[in-house]
């Protein structure tokens, strides 16, 4: 990260009933802000498509994510294509709840909405 400086990002997600999928606004210190769409596959898997730009070229990012059965961990694979090139896996992030924030199995049954965080 040192060559690009400190990375900061923030996302918001909401349900678009007319489009019948989630929409996301993601802003970060590398690429600015972009709108994305997310579709759920059941209640523990999702795909997010995020068009954007990087150094003046079109960047397409697809994030495939999943939630553990107990709700205490998430896994996301990032695939990116720069300027129409074939997509390549650029990053994997594994998230895990810790300490008192640890969800119980009963709480994990509630509706959970994924949101990318850094």
Describe the 3D structure.
- With 118 residues, the protein is mainly beta.
- It is built from one helix and seven strands.
- It has one domain: Pantoate--beta-alanine Ligase, Chain: A,domain 2, CATH 3.30.1300.
- Biggest sheet record: 7 strands, antiparallel
CATH architecture: 2-Layer Sandwich
Query: How many β-strands, per DSSP?
Result: 7
Would you give the CATH topology?
Answer: Pantoate--beta-alanine Ligase, Chain: A,domain 2
Number of helices: 1
What sort of overall outline do the alpha carbons produce when their principal axes are compared?
globular
**The level-1 CATH class:** Alpha Beta
Ends distance: 13 Å
Give the neighbour order of strands across the main sheet.
1-2-3-4-5-6-7
The helix/strand series, from N terminus to C terminus, equals EEEEEEEH
| Helix residue percentage | under 10%
What integer value in Å does the Rg equal?
15 Å
Average pLDDT reading: 84
Structural domains: how many? 1
